Amino acid sequence: MGFFILNLFAMIATVVTSSFSTRWLGTWLPAGWTTRWYSAAWSEFQLHDVLLVTFQIVFLVVALSGLIGVPAAYALARRDFPGKKLVMLLFLLPLLVPPITFGIPLATVLYQTGFAGSMSGVVLANLVPTVPFVILVMIPFIEQIDTKIESAARVFGANTFKLFVHVLLPLLMPGILAALLLVLVRTLAMFELTFLTAGPTSQTLV
């Protein structure tokens, strides 16, 4: 494990160092240092606009995934209803199949409904795998909370909103942060869905 981490940091350090070099051939260290490659990339590829769109999409996907996924995970963890296993299977399908498999028909539907080629279309497409991901991560965190804690809060007059904000949210915060962090990384790495739904005029780093 230590050897793997050492090699990983060595590769990252090599890439970062080479990005500041004027020329690097036949030596351990660059012959000179410069930031012009960053300036050229910033101006030539309009990185300001690209990064802005990327951060907007990632923020919306992370926020909506949490707002939808956490309550859905609570319902699936605490409630029994007919067809629960089927619902769980449907939620897991986007995580079990390659993104390109459901990405093409999803993009077709978004183009037909007019959502594709816009930020809302990209966000909707990325929510398909990220919401089930939040649900999958959060269910074990919710199941490990004793239901007696919730019952005690209701006995003392807490409604559903107060129960969630003052009792469940502090207990679930580690799981929520872990789930949202994983969603952020997954969204940045989900090139296929963004490519299929963004349209030819959109530019993101997602």
TrEMBL record:
Query: Which Pfam families does the entry mention?
Result: BPD_transp_1
Record field: transmembrane: 50-74, 86-111, 123-142, 163-185
Report if keyword Transmembrane helix is assigned: yes
Domain ABC transmembrane type-1 residue range list = 51-206
Q: Supply the alphabetized keyword list.
A: Cell inner membrane, Cell membrane, Membrane, Transmembrane, Transmembrane helix, Transport
Tell me where it resides.
Cell inner membrane; Cell membrane
Coiled coil start-end: none
Say if the entry is tagged with keyword Transmembrane helix. yes
Q: Which InterPro entries match?
A: MetI-like, MetI-like_sf
Q: Name one GO biological process term.
A: transmembrane transport
- Where does it sit, as one GO cellular component term? plasma membrane
- Which membrane topology term applies here? Multi-pass membrane protein
Q: Which CDD domains does the entry link to?
A: TM_PBP2
The family line of this record is: Belongs to the binding-protein-dependent transport system permease family.
Listed name of the protein: ABC transporter permease
Taxonomic lineage per UniProt?
Bacteria, Pseudomonadati, Pseudomonadota, Alphaproteobacteria, Hyphomicrobiales
